[in-house]
Amino acid sequence: MSAAIDVHRASALGDIPHGFLGRRGGVSQGMHAGLNVGPGSDDEAEAVAENRRRAREAVLPGARLVTLYQVHSADAVTIVEPFEERLRPRADALVTDRPGLLLGILTADCAPVLFADPQAGVIGAAHAGWKGAIGGVTDSTIAAMEMLGAQRDRIAAAIGPCIARASYEVDDGFLQRFCAEDPENERFFAAGRPGHHQFDLEAYVAHRLASAGIRQVELLGLDTYADADRFFSYRRATHRGEPDYGRQISLIGLA
């Protein structure tokens, strides 16, 4: 994949340097072909490092990239300086008010969410898979941003490429878990084949953001599963019987 890097931006985030990147423009080959940035994949370490460099330069040249050891939690951490790769915190959201840092979230169907309060100079990024989303990872991100001086009525958020409802089949147990949390969550599920449903992760995350008082929420509406040329997808790789999968990255920083 020799195409230029795809950088999807959200108007809600204004001039804050950011981008939801896909798989185009990287050096990885085979099943990881393109801009695979996942150190946890079976890809060559040198290729992943080069892809991460390219991703950084496409969004905020010269910045210091900071990522996490993501574990599908609701935990958010505040970043004041970069740390060694082997010392990455086990968490699923990060916030900062420090210029020159580029916050990165890796996904392969889960929803990446980028946040900004430009007036306060505070940004955040969250990895919202279904576990983190229902657990409150976006709420934790907002709270951590407020600790740095952000105000939630000024925070804008954007939800990047993730698996869409048409591609996300779940079973009755999954539906029941969400409805036990709130019966009104049933509206995020459409009827599927017997005993199954289609879950709208993007809409659910947007609902969580709006319920938390975020007034500006932008949905990019990009389906990672359905567009193999542009995005990596864990579920698509699983359905194809592939032994591994790549990860794309979503980035936000302060110049």
What does this structure look like?
The chain has 255 residues and is an alpha+beta fold. The protein is globular. The chain has helices at 45-59, 130-135, 137-147, 172-181, 201-211, 234-239, and strands at 7-8, 18-21, 64-66, 76-78, 93-96, 101-107, 111-117, 122-128, 156-159, 169-171, 189-191, 196-199, 216-219, 248-253. The strands form 3 sheets. The chain has a 6-stranded mixed sheet with strand order 4-5-8-7-9-13. The protein has a 5-stranded mixed sheet with strand order 1-2-14-6-3, with helices on one face. 49% of the residues are buried.
Summed up, what is this model?
The protein is of the alpha+beta class and 255 residues long.
